[in-house]
Description:
Layout: E1 7-10, H1 16-27, H2 40-52, E2 56-62, E3 65-73, E4 78-84, H3 93-104, E5 109-114, H4 118-126, E6 130-136, E7 143-149
Antiparallel strand pairs: 1-2, 2-3, 3-4, 5-7, 6-7
Amino acid sequence: MTTPIYQLRPSVETDYDAIAEVWHGSASLPDVGPPVMPTLNELRERVDLAFAAGWEVTLAARERDVIGFVAIKPREAILDQLFVRPGYLGCGIGQALLGHAMAKMPEGFTLFTASRNTRARAFYEKAGLIFLRDAPHPRTGHPVTYYGWTGR
């Protein structure tokens, strides 16, 4: 697959539906999301709540199409979500979004991913993030793996 032409840009409120769609579509892939996947409507509601609680979201956009996003919480030094539309996996978009998070939180951050999500785990490990621990998901209880990045 050739690398698509896209730009990173800050999200705006009119992007919230697209953010939820990318999140739902990607997290619904096998072994990516929780054992019981929230509906698209439930994730859309979570998007509103997360922005109200301080999410900063940067999009990978191709013209008007959102093809990926990274949601960070800089005050807490957390990379909260990073998802790329399934048809664009392996094109370098995740790397660009992770690089953006690293630039925005140069002192480091933590994140977690589903323990069974071997693709994400390999992605974070290849990018230099360090395994911290395995634990139950704070909301659903399914196994997650925590990673840390110590900064530049």
